[in-house]
């Protein structure tokens, strides 16, 4: 029996008994996904392990995809400087007489 058939059977039985209908399959999937990290931290505490704080994955992504702070590395070469102002395509250096 598929999940849809089970849902239809449960809905039919609920109507026959005058009970409220059950939620549709997949109605609370996002809520479950949001609560999963809380459940993992709870299970870690019960097992005697330290509960990790929120944002470990977000911090890892931030470290991977953010630019360096711009501080010069004393051991590495100096960063090239950008010209001041916008660079217009086809712009040439001024002619000297």
TrEMBL record:
Record protein name field: Uncharacterized protein
Residue segments, region Disordered: 1-28, 67-97
Biased composition (Low complexity): 72-86
Source organism per UniProt: Streptomyces dioscori
